Amino acid sequence: MKKQAFANPEDAAAVGVEVKYNDPDVERVHRVHLNNLENIPLFILSGLFYTASNPNVMVALMLFRIFFVFRILHTVAQLFLHLRMFRSICFFCGLGINVFMLIMALLAFHQF
């Protein structure tokens, strides 16, 4: 609303402005939302499998908290810092936590 940039003509018509496409700030927020929609459901699934494998509670809490911090840092880096390398590090650390939890869950279920 602040930028008067809308994705759909009907949204712009409701406010009474012309459609403005490809505003960099609006596109950046859109990419953040899409990235979170790609990564958070994967974390929820891997976290469910990991907790079903009866892990050490302290390790599980630490992994969950670290993932949360890295997702927040990734969002901040995308929106405000514009540092590609920092954003990549945050993404790959979160991905590493997902992979670790899935591997540990698979190993635990393989023992049954």
Automatic annotation (TrEMBL):
<keyword id="KW-0256">Endoplasmic reticulum</keyword>
<dbReference type="InterPro" id="IPR023352">
    <property type="entry name" value="MAPEG-like_dom_sf"/>
</dbReference>
<comment type="similarity">
    <text>Belongs to the MAPEG family.</text>
</comment>
<keyword id="KW-1000">Mitochondrion outer membrane</keyword>
<keyword id="KW-0808">Transferase</keyword>
<dbReference type="InterPro" id="IPR040162">
    <property type="entry name" value="MGST1-like"/>
</dbReference>
<dbReference type="GO" id="GO:0005741">
    <property type="term" value="C:mitochondrial outer membrane"/>
</dbReference>
<dbReference type="InterPro" id="IPR001129">
    <property type="entry name" value="Membr-assoc_MAPEG"/>
</dbReference>
<keyword id="KW-0496">Mitochondrion</keyword>
<keyword id="KW-1133">Transmembrane helix</keyword>
<dbReference type="GO" id="GO:0005789">
    <property type="term" value="C:endoplasmic reticulum membrane"/>
</dbReference>
<comment type="subunit">
    <text>Homotrimer; The trimer binds only one molecule of glutathione.</text>
</comment>
<dbReference type="Pfam" id="PF01124">
    <property type="entry name" value="MAPEG"/>
</dbReference>
<dbReference type="GO" id="GO:0004364">
    <property type="term" value="F:glutathione transferase activity"/>
</dbReference>
<feature type="transmembrane region" description="Helical">
    <location>
        <begin position="89"/>
        <end position="109"/>
    </location>
</feature>
<feature type="transmembrane region" description="Helical">
    <location>
        <begin position="57"/>
        <end position="77"/>
    </location>
</feature>
<keyword id="KW-0812">Transmembrane</keyword>
<comment type="function">
    <text>Conjugation of reduced glutathione to a wide number of exogenous and endogenous hydrophobic electrophiles.</text>
</comment>
<protein>
    <recommendedName>
        <fullName>Microsomal glutathione S-transferase 1</fullName>
        <ecNumber>2.5.1.18</ecNumber>
    </recommendedName>
</protein>
<keyword id="KW-0472">Membrane</keyword>
<keyword id="KW-0007">Acetylation</keyword>
